[in-house]
Amino acid sequence: MRDNSSTGREALQLDVAALRADTPGCRRVIHFNNAGCGLMAAPVTDAMVGHLNLEARIGGYEASAARAAEVRAFYTEIAALINTTPDNIAFAGSATHAYANALSAIPFETDDVILTTRDDFVSNQIAFLSLRKRFGVRIVHAPNTPDGGVDVEAMAALMRTHRPRLVSATHVPTNSGLVSPVAEIGRHCRELDLLYLVDACQSVGQLAVDVAEIGCDFLTATCRKFLRGPRGSGFLYVSDRVLRAGHEPLFIDMHGARWTEPGGYEPAGTAARFEEWEFPYATVLGSATATRYAREVGIEAIEQRTPALAARLRDRLAPIPGVRVLDRGPRLAALVTFGVAGWQRQPFKAAMDARGINSSLSLREFAQFDFGDKDVDWCLRLSPHYYNTEEEVDHVAHVVAELAGQGRR
Ligand SMILES: Cc1ncc(COP(=O)(O)O)c(C=O)c1O
């Protein structure tokens, strides 16, 4: 629904009451853990349960054959969401699996450079360290600006000096609301013809993500977070450049390739090359439904409302004595992180749980650089979504204020 009374960027209104009515979880909890896992809408669970029942009635292989068109919709929906074609999309059981598969397609050699940022996701950093251990690659981290977030010009200079085998960036990290300028980084990668891998796990479903604009070669995401799909689902985008260059995952199987003769195989021409034969079909159908649902709600409207709810929460948390809001950077998404004086992490999270508020803890080991720079060992992460309300935001801030007061006693 459009509100033409606004000035500047058109304000898009959502029917929040209807969206909440579609979301059974809203009746039970204040779910501010969408960066962990979003609440599924009823059509998503209906699609999954329906398919499981069909499998039970007619057989698993027969059920997937009967639902082939709906399975195909997973690819068309995700492709439309991120502005590419279905042939560039591979289903993955997790964002991490998609990421590892992409990395495995790059023939790293000793002294190859991986250029990344200080805000790249923890598992990506561990994967780079593992590649260093096995292949002797070098890992270079671009510096941040004083305001937070990567210094794109400094990163571009590092691209020119090191000619990295891979450039990697995380769009929105797990441990703060930072939005990284992935399209600006991508422009430099394209100019210099460098392989570029983007982790969009926290941005897909809350921000517009356009792979053509970003200029990446690979992009990874989960469906369970801001896309509100089921657990155990994600995807990998693979560019035509990568497919044409013949990059393929290290462990390619009988779905990703055809065994054409005893001594040879032929990889699929599409991103299916990065998939495995076995699929969790109910999950794939749930993910397709969740993606369609998000597109029908409208990504532009979601992108307006979701970070705005988070900004409202930060505004209310920042003045509370003993609370330190930790998000920094020129643009912030719907992950709100903060520390509270006088509390240990587990009791604080438990106190939020006891008040019916879902949240999540971030630890130093998830973000060695960022938490080192901020000099914190943990923080609480609150991540609202468009179906949360302003009243919930205010209530959560009120609860944090009450708890922070107890911590100071
Ligand atoms: C930025 C980011 N990347 C990747 C992941 C990993 O996703 P998955 O658990 O689906 O492997 C997460 C999970 O929290 C994340 O926040």
From TrEMBL:
It comes from the Bacteria. It comes from Streptomyces aurantiacus JA 4570. Residues 33-395 form the Aminotransferase class V domain. Pfam families: Aminotran_5 (PF00266). Coiled coil: none annotated. InterPro entries: Aminotrans_V_dom (IPR000192), PyrdxlP-dep_Trfase (IPR015424), PyrdxlP-dep_Trfase_major (IPR015421), PyrdxlP-dep_Trfase_small (IPR015422). PANTHER family: BLR4730 PROTEIN, CYSTEINE DESULFURASE. This is Putative cysteine desulfurase.
